[in-house]
Design a protein that fits this description.
This protein has one domain. The strands form three sheets. The chain has a three-stranded antiparallel β-sheet with strand order 4-3-7. A hairpin with a 2-residue loop joins β1 and β2. It is mainly α. α5 packs antiparallel against α6. The protein is globular. It contains nine helices and seven strands.
Length: 221
């Protein structure tokens, strides 16, 4: 069976640029914040203003992200540290993270998504409080998914389900076990600014700048 394709950083950069540009004129930004799969499916079905996205046809399987970051061109230090935690921690350590939001007794947060520019990393997502999922709860969510994937008698399928449809998987398989207050329609994240856009958003949306201004996934989208 062929591997399910995963979205690239450049593809995400173009989608985020679209959301920025349309934040006051369409519902695309709100959809992206609440149901990333629905936003991506909209682009797959109505991609006229995002040509040459090279996404699978509507209805075909597609992963929005890869939790082991294996599709990234270069792993940065944050990704390396996160993988060391999620792939290197014991069952007991991952349980501490997803049950308590701590590791070795210290609070943990999942670093947010970022623009990757020639001047470094620029923070992309904001977390302005409930009902937006907190960075601590995102760390708990990731730890739970990795724990289910790595240790029996878990549910290995949960990782792929989460990568394909984070909102639905949160609702059906994660919110209950983690006692999250998340409900359908709550934002997974808040897309901030950008007060000072990294480059010309219209060029990024058109793919002219997407290679220079990639979107580095740290949360679900």
């Amino acid at each position: 069976m062929a591997a399910i394709p995963v979205m690239s950083e450049a593809q995400w950069a173009r989608i985020i640029a679209k959301a920025y540009l349309e934040k006051t004129t369409t519902n695309f930004k709100n959809t992206l914040e609440r149901d990333p799969k629905a936003a991506v499916d909209y682009v797959r079905q109505n991609g006229g203003d995002l040509p040459n996205m090279d996404l699978p046809a509507p209805g075909a399987p597609l992963r929005l992200m890869n939790l082991d970051y294996s599709n990234w061109v270069v792993l940065d230090s944050v990704a390396i540290d996160l993988l060391a935690i999620f792939k290197g921690s014991s069952h007991v350590e991952l349980q501490e993270i997803f049950n308590k939001g701590t590791l070795d007794g210290q609070p943990v947060e999942l670093p947010p998504g970022e623009w990757v520019t020639d001047k470094g990393l620029i923070r992309l997502f904001l977390h302005s409080g409930p009902p937006t999922i907190s960075l601590t709860d995102w760390m708990r969510i990731y730890a739970y998914v990795w724990d289910q994937f790595r240790f029996p008698p878990g549910n290995q399928a949960i990782r792929e389900l989460f990568e394909e449809d984070p909102a639905q998987t949160l609702l059906s398989k994660i919110a209950g076990p983690l006692n999250l207050s998340y409900k359908k329609g709550d934002p997974l994240f808040t897309l901030g600014g950008p007060d000072d856009p990294p480059g010309n958003l219209a060029d990024i949306k058109a793919d002219k700048g997407a290679k220079q201004f990639r979107h580095r996934i740290r949360l679900c989208c």
